[in-house]
Amino acid sequence: MRLLLVEDDTMIGEVVLDLLRAEHYAVDWVKDGDMADTALQTQTYDLVLLDLGLPRKDGLEVLRSMRARKELTPVLVATARDVKEQRIAGLDAGADDYVLKPYDLDELLARIRALLRRSAGRAEPVFEHGGVSVNPQTREVLADGKQVSLSAREWAVLEALIARPGIVLSRHQLEEKLYSWKDEVNSNAVEVYIHGLRKKLGAELIQNVRGLGYMVPKL
To answer: Which residues pair with 28 in a beta bridge?
Structure first.
């Protein structure tokens, strides 16, 4: 999953960036509202973590612009603990949830997981498909009841596909979920990870859709 972190405080931003990347999210980090606007109009994200107190353009303006463009990307706004009005304004402007600063990092991750789950149309915390079970919180993957070890990139590809059964994702769309701006993208990387997943989880789980991309079929 690819996230946009919008945070002008360098110390906070570095902590959150390290946390999210340790959880195998691809993350782009911008530090003001104008840069956030540009990123959102040139890149597709699965979630935005948006600080409201930003230089150059307020976070509420960024949020309102997103919703005016009919962008449905989940937005988790970050607000100061003692400013209730900010939280209300953010939710009224189209935010999906809020998290208080200073962050409780476990709560931050839990809220991100919940929003990603909701945006994929799932209520349950664990993916189940055929004989494969995937727990995004623990990163545990089971195939026919046996635990399977995946690399970080294999995990990212699997999570993206199994979250939306029946939806075809192109190689480019999968690459976007794997890599941040500064990462180098190998031309056949997605194919390599798909091959690895099929060896570990069975050839039937991920299907090729000729000329379009890959999908996990609906049951």
So the answer is: 4
Residue among 72, 75, 28 at smallest CA distance from 52: 75
Question: What is the three-state SS of 88-107?
Answer: HHHHHHCCCEEEEECCCHHH
pTM of the model: 0.72
Q: What is the pLDDT of residues 55-80, one digit of tens each?
A: 999 999 999 999 999 999 999 999 88
pLDDT digits (tens, 9 = 90+) for 180-209: 666 666 678 889 999 999 999 988 889 999
Question: Can you tell me the mean pLDDT for 133-140?
Answer: 82
| Options 1.20.1250.20, 2.60.40.420, 3.30.420.40, 1.10.10.10; CATH of 127-215 | 1.10.10.10
